[in-house]
Amino acid sequence: MTTTGEDHVAVRGGPWWWDRRRGAVLDVSLAAVSALECAFEGVPFAREAGIPPAVGVVFGLLAGAVLVVRRKWPVAVVLVAVAITPARMGFLLGVVGLYTLAACEVPRRIIASLAGMSLVGTAIVTFVRVRQDLARGEPTLGDWFVPFAALTISLGLTAPPVLLGLYVGARRRLMESLRERADSLERELQLLAERAEERAEWARNEERTRIAREMHDVVAHRVSLMVVHAAALQAVARKDPEKAVRNAALVGDMGRQALTELREMLGVLRSGGDGRRERPVVPLAAVGAAAAAAASRVAEDAGGGAAEGPCLDEIGELVGQSAAAGMVVDLSVEGEARAYAPEVEQTAYRVVQEALTNVHKHAAGARTRVRLAHRGSEIAMQVENEPPPKGASASSARLPSGGNGLVGMRERVVALGGVFVSGPTDAGGFRVSAVIPAS
Q1: Domains, the chain, ordered by start
Q2: Residue 138 has pLDDT above 70, yes or no
Q3: CA-CA 20 to 30 A from 175: which of 7, 133, 156, 314?
């Protein structure tokens, strides 16, 4: 983890404007040394100016102590250093002040202006002092030595702290930028991991919903027919033994078909593995990609499982099973039959299957019409039943209803971009219609 931004601010523990206590100790120490230096240099300055030495000492102490605010007001420190340059005071104050000014977040033009002022002031004072010293000593050096010495000393006192400060400031800004980028990258990776987890959770929810629909379709239809046949078997067991045997055989067939379809779905679930194997720890940088890949695999498994199931060719058998259970049902097919995508055929089959199951549950004995239309770019299906005969509005088998059949059909059709409509008819029956795009 990095400590940038708000986290970086939170670790500050220094007093006043200092970020850290050691920074405060360093500045106070430098200010004390600078104050002592300026106090000693204030004595000869006072003698030359004709004022009491105590005044020069106090002036030096005040001027040198300005270095304590170098982090908060570096411009003021440099201006004080330039101002006391004629008094030959503040060597440490000027060097540290220029370094701090160049290292802090100050516009370059201000740094250049103040550095130029310090250079010129130091050069002028040095020129005058060297010339006076040479004049008192009657040197044999040429006239070139005075400006050379003034320029060399002024550059030596100005250029190194400025260049060092610029380097340290640039390096500090670079490190802060790298910390901010690392922190931003970490937040982005966490966000990607969260989004990938959300996608994986969504895919798992979709798969659970799909499995629930499949289980509902298989159990509701097959078991409903088994209950109807069992009720008929109970009614005719003593009166018509042969018919009872046929009904018993149909119940057995329905049970075996239901078990077969359940085994197929359970096989699809087991083929994906239980996902409980331990996984090695991976860096955070790989979390986003790994989670996204996991979400994609879950979604692919969900889509792949949807392709397993019945097809349109089995609708005739489906209608025949309902007819064998005592329903008066007619099947009509319009258009030229052709192959569709597996998920389209499965959805169409399930819509017809659930509609017939609802007729068994809620309109036992009602005449039912199943229509299937093959069109150019879509396939349409409709299951419509008439009102049940009087006295037979409820099934004698007392079939329970979960209330999820119509919801599941709508979800299936809408997921493929189709249209689903259901509702009562004017004649008192019920109609279920669906149109599914062919591709």
Answers
A1: 6-188 (no CATH), 311-439 (3.30.565.10)
A2: no
A3: 156
